[in-house]
Amino acid sequence: MAGNIVTPQMVADICNSGMMGSIPSGYLTLTNLRTFIKETQRLTSNDFIVNIFIEPDHPVTEKLAKPHAVRNIEVKLGLPDEDSFIYPASVPLMDYVDLLIAMQVRYVSTTFGFFNSEIVTKLKAKNIIILATVTSPAEARFCIANGADGLILQGQEAGGHQGYFLTNQCGRLSTLELLDSVNRLDLGVPLIVAGGIGINDIPKFLSAGAQLIQLGSLFMLTETSGLPHTVKEYICKCTNTSFTKDITGQYARGVTNLLMSELVNTLNYTFPIQHYATSRLRKYARDNLLTNYMALWVGKHANLECNSLNVLLEKIKASCLNYQRCQSSVIIEEH
Ligand SMILES: Cc1cc2nc3c(=O)[nH]c(=O)nc-3n(C[C@H](O)[C@H](O)[C@H](O)COP(=O)(O)O)c2cc1C
Predict the structure, then answer these.
(1) Nearest CA to ligand 1 atom 21
(2) What is the tens place of the pLDDT at every residue in 138-194?
(3) Would the CB of 224 count as within 6 Å of ligand 1?
(4) Does ligand 1 lie within 6 Å of residue 110's CB atom?
(5) How far is the CA of 25 from the centre of ligand 1 (A)?
(6) Domain boundaries, the chain
C-alpha cells in the first residue's frame, strides 16, 4: 500500500508472524526505497515482497497546467492559487531491479502492467519470484505467458487502485468471480486473491481454490499504519465506497466523499499524471484532517474494524486454522 501507509515495522511484524508483508515502492525515490528495505531487513530475517508500479517511461521532469477543477477546490480550501504542478521524471524500472538484486530481495510484485522480457530474465537469473497483479483472465494469461511465477487476482472490491493494464477500463469481476474464471484457465501457478476479503471470508476463498490471500485495508486500519488515527476511525464508520478515475487517472476504490464528487468528469490527465495534479490538494487535506478532500482508499467490506496489528494477525491465523481443521475433518470423513 503506497502513500505513507505501510511502515518497515508493519512489514516486519507481518513477516515475523509467519505471513508475508509487502513493501510499497510506489512514489518512493530509490534512496527512500533502499532505506525502507534496509530497515525492514533489520527488523526481520524472513522474506517479504517489494511491490513495483509499472508506469509509463517519463525521463524528464515537466511542469504542466493544473486542471481548473483542482484549482477551484484548492482556492475554496484557502490554498494560494497555483496554475501548474510538477510531473517528476520516473525512476527507470531497471534501477529498481538492480536495487532489489543488490539488496537480495526474493519476491517482487507488479501492478499496472508487467515487466519486459529483459527484466524477467534478469530477475529469474537471480531466482527472484515474480508475482503479477491482474484484474481479468486476459491479464492473467498475458503475465503467465511473459514469465510470472504467481498471480495476485485483484477483484473489484479491492481498496485503492485497480491494477488493470490491458484495457483502460477497470476489471468488472468480483474477487470470487475472478478467482473462478482464472482457476478454470488451469495456469499451473499459485493464485493469490485480493479485494474486500474480511477475516471470516478467508476459508471461503481458500475453499474456492486460492492458495493465498492478500489483505490491504485491514492492515491500513491497524495502529502501525501511517494514517492518522482519527482518519482510521472515520474510515471504519463509512459504509459507502466508490470507484473514481478522477483523482489519479486510474480507477481506484475509496470512501465516497466530496473530492470524488467535485472532480467527477473533470479528468485532465492519465495515470500517474493526474495523481501529481491533485497531490498538493490531497496533502493539504491530509495535513489538516479534511476527510472530505482526502483520497481515502479502502476496499468494499461488510465490516471494517480498527484492530491492533497483533490482534489482526491472531484473528487471521485463527481463521486459517479454522479452514485447515475443516479440511482435515473432510479428509477424515472421506476415509
Ligand atoms: C490504501 C491502499 C493503497 C494501496 N496501494 C497499493 C500499491 O501501492 N500497490 C499495489 O499493488 N496495490 C495497492 N493497493 C491494493 C492492494 O494491493 C489490494 O489489492 C487491496 O488492498 C485488497 O483489497 P482490500 O483492501 O479490500 O483488502 C492498495 C490498497 C489500499 C487500500
Answers:
(1) 216
(2) 999 999 999 999 999 999 999 999 999 999 888 789 999 999 999 999 999 999 999
(3) no
(4) no
(5) 13
(6) 1-55+93-226
The reported pLDDT for the residue numbered 189 is 97
Residue range 50-92, pLDDT digits in tens: 999 999 999 999 999 999 999 999 999 999 999 999 999 999 9
Instruction: State whether the beta carbon of 272 lies less than 6 angstroms from ligand 1.
Output: no
CB atoms within 10 A of CB 113: 21
Q: Which atom of ligand 1 is nearest to the CA of 301?
A: 26
Report CA 261 to chain centroid distance, whole Å.
Answer: 23
1-55+93-226 topology per CATH? TIM Barrel (3.20.20)
pTM recorded for the entire structure:
0.96
| Contacts by residues 119-122 (CB-CB < 8 Å, ≥ 24 positions apart) | 119/93, 119/94, 120/146, 120/147, 122/94, 122/97
Give pLDDT, residue 236.
Answer: 93
Angle between helices 30-43 and 93-102 (to 10 degrees): 30
Q: Is 170 in the pocket of ligand 1 (CB under 6 A)?
A: no
The predicted model gives 300-328 an average pLDDT of: 90
DSSP code of residue 195: S
